[in-house]
Amino acid sequence: MVFAAPNDALARAEGVLDADPSPLHASVAHQVIGIWQRDWGDMRLALHHLRRARDLAARADSADREADVLAALGVALVHAGRTQQGLAALERGVARGSGHTRARVLFRRAYARWVLGHHREALEDVRKAIPVLRQAEDVIWTARALTLRATVHLALGTVDRADADFTAAEALWDTTGQEHDKADAVESRGLAAFRSGDIPAALRLLDEAEERYAKLGTPTFMLNIRRCEVLMAAGLAPEALAEADAAIAVLDGIGGQSTRKAELLLAAARAARLAGEAHTAIARADMAVRLFAGQRRSWWETHARLVLIEARVAAGRSSGRLVADTAAVAERLAFFGAPAAPQASLLAGRIALTLGWRADAEQHLAVAARSRRSGPPLARMTGWAAQALRARAAGSGRGVLEACRRGLDVLDAHRMTLGASELRARATEQGAELAALAQQASLDSGSPRRLLVWSERWRATALSTPPTRPPAAPQLQGALTAFRVIAARAEEARMDARPVPALEREQRRLEREIRSRTLHLRGDTPGDGYRFEPGRLLQRLGDDVLLAELAVLDGRVQVLLCGQGRVRRFEAGLLAEAETEAEHVQAGLRRLAHPGAEARLPIVEAAGRRLEELLLGPAAAHLGDGPVVVVPPARLHQVPWALLPSLRERVLSVSPSASSWLRARETEPPPGGRQVLVRGPGLATGGAEVPHLACRYGGAVVLEHADARVPRVLEELDGAALAHIAAHGTFRADSPLFSSLRMADGPIVVHDFERLDRSPYRIILSCCDTARFASVGADELLGLVTALLPLGTAGVVAASAPVNDAAVVPLMLALHKRLSEGLSLAEALRDARAALPGDALHQATGWAFSAFGAA
């Protein structure tokens, strides 16, 4: 019962002990309590009860009973970090047991050996146990043994064998009532899905396992460890670190297993390193190394040493000793057959290169490069990164580019298995090194056109195809509706100065549920095979339009000026200085959005001039007087480009990539030319431009007051030619896909827009912060505007800073006047700025808005 209904089993066992049982029955009861405490409670109590069970079994003169207890005690001792004592108890159990019981003891010894990282010995034990358990028709223990054998196969990288064992075990579990074991099987299938590269399926199965464990009321430390691994692969390292640290705190609070604590510390160290917290990673990894060493778990200790070295390198350390230590770790990992061995060889080679040790670097990189031909996507990418570094060390620019191309092709295929735009964006971080190597090789070649190709190769790739549409599942729709209701109630309470902690907790819970269901989506497209072609871009630009793509190499901005049949390169300033200046500009625009801040105008204009020097440099003198498209890196999308002097009075549009600008330029407007005007609640002006626009567009659909509810708004927006939304905007830096526009019944979020079959061809968002984004992955953006671009929207006008509601009205009226005369969004916005009064308030309002895309 202890793995079917754990808490019921605990109560029954305590009841047995209250009834003055025989030594045999008391031994069983103490063993049940010991197992419960071992897996979900206090290890000190677990060892007390299991030793008592062992002594009672000896008094009962039952060799098989004693063998069974010794097996449970041995596992507990191993989990407590007393490895030698635990293995000794398991040896005695194997010696005391016979037949069926001995097979069960062998299974437990195999499990202990798996925990210790002795994988081949674990396989030997479990292979001996399975035939005996099958012959005895012991369904539960056979299923456990198959599940364990599958898990060991995964640790050794043999995914196909693991899948076969998991399938066989699942068929057996379906015939039993072992609810905890069933949950464990679902969790193990999640691990198998992850090992085969299917992150959405892994997340879905781990969430399902967590729901099953929750019904049983048992902690889930192994699940925490596995979810951390999947979250890290998905680019969600900060979340993995938070989950690992929280689980460690719970484990410490109950006095739980020392082995699980060490594994959680290792997960936390990996997550901290990936999240850029090198010193936190060093602290966690060092503790993990010490615990694993004390537990005599060499396989685990070696993995922890690898993470410790990676963290030290990330903190800026480099030495010959580190090369030797990393090479030793790589050798040990290869001996264990661990999939992480190529990663360690790559690291050894990379450190050797920084020291100028060319021969040592070539030796280690050659070993790492072997993994490029087979294995899961991230292992193959490790191999191609090693091959690229080998080519660079040999002076072969062509070899660098070929290795980078092959590696990024692997990652492209992997990304397209992900349905959620967030996961696609974050997955690009895995290719950042390859993209940087290729860009540097292109720069060294002296070819601006080649640098443009590689700048585009890994820029805003999450926008290249639409995310998978969320299914019309009742659970997801219900969660979105409940989220909207709770968010609206919380907003009302805040406006009335009432406390909202309970509502905020429920809102966060619903956000987690929605996000979780979205991350489960698997990509439904293999990609369109699109490759960026500079010639096609130059043809579309013609002789009048210039496109300025900003690439960043070694922290410096490189401006690639495309147009008039050629690509030219100009070197501008440092990215870090430009980011700092952009923050000053944002602060100035926030001040200018309020009356009485006129004195700030010269300061903001001066900052705009400095930004131009840093971002465009000498390229500013070559812009001519025609339209300009700016393609900034993700970290510069907060720049109000219209503030730069050379861009201030011209037709200007912004795009996340040249490829997305091309797609927007080639997008055809929908038939019918339907206009939709939406007015949300709570605006200072009441959305005063909307009634005027309703008169201008006689047949427009107008949604306001009670009609401006999210389901109706989405219905009308789908396939519209032009949409104008006057509503409060909220940007969520912590969760950009919950950035929202406030409607009558609550917020409309990015997840809602992703359900549209086709978003409006042109959309104008006359509210604050709608053009703000979160920079994630290698060079990706998440936010409201970027959610619209892959879904059929060719042009957006939105604000990247807070604006004055009253000053927005004349800007919007002038914008629509010029649109109705046949101008593009960028042309209309340029003319609308010029038509505003010349005071600081209106000028700042005009600068805050940008035209995105090409419509």
UniProtKB/TrEMBL annotation:
Q: Name the SMART domains for this protein.
A: TPR
**Family annotation (Pfam families):** CHAT (PF12770)
SUPFAM superfamilies xref list: TPR-like
**Which part of the chain is the CHAT domain?**
606-848
Under what name is this protein listed? CHAT domain-containing protein
Q: Which organism is it from?
A: Streptomyces cyaneochromogenes
Taxonomic path: Bacteria, Bacillati, Actinomycetota, Actinomycetes, Kitasatosporales
